[in-house]
User: What shape does this take?
Amino acid sequence: MNLLWLKLILTPLFITVIALAGRRWGPAVGGWIAGLPLTSGPVSLFLALEQGRAFAGDAAVSSLAGGAAVGVFCLAYALTAARRGWMASTASGLTVFFGGAVLLRFLPLPLWPTFGAVFLILLGVRFLLPTFDRRFLDVASPWWDLPARAVVATAMVILLTGGAQVLGARWSGLLAPFPLFANVTVAFAHRNQGPQAGLAVLRGIAMALFAFAVFFLLVVGLLPHVGIGLTYALAAAGAVAVNGLSLRGLHG
Assistant: This one.
């Protein structure tokens, strides 16, 4: 099957299933799911298939580092949300994310030091995020929410993979973790259910980012040695295992 058709079919299907799961179990779990590599994982897979293992491996190290930028996005959003609405919080979070991505563009990113630094940053974010009050409104999502998520996610995957040769491995990897679904999920919860619901989403995202980091650590480590399919299957299994453990601390 043509890779374009795989992108057009698998990406929206994957995103829709996960979004429905988030609706079923509330904003904290929705954020916990949104923090997984929902777009960056497929982007990495398609880069390996289209650009080769070496390119995808280099991009995956940058994506791993980008997890730290997503973490500070969560912290910046949370600190702003204590005083301002969802639009100002979004602007604050995304400004910090892009600032972090630009900084990472010019830093050396050896695998294990990068993983260690990202892990420590995520621990700091996890403990600096304020706890949330579980009493918030339960508001149904509008009819267009799921189709919009699917369309935007698919467009993101197509743009990043289609422009990979122009962007290069470093920028392709750094932009792949762009907190698209994290931002949509937290902003919607914040706008419709209040800042406490937004904090619940952010706490879930922060917990899921540990699994995000493990996913890309495994991709970089395995890709030169085993097949592409097995690499991403094992990386996904590792991320699921870590995320299952992190669920215990979601409300802590």
Q: What stands out?
A: The chain has a mean pLDDT of 83. The chain has eleven helices and no strands. Residues 53-81 form the longest helix (29 residues).
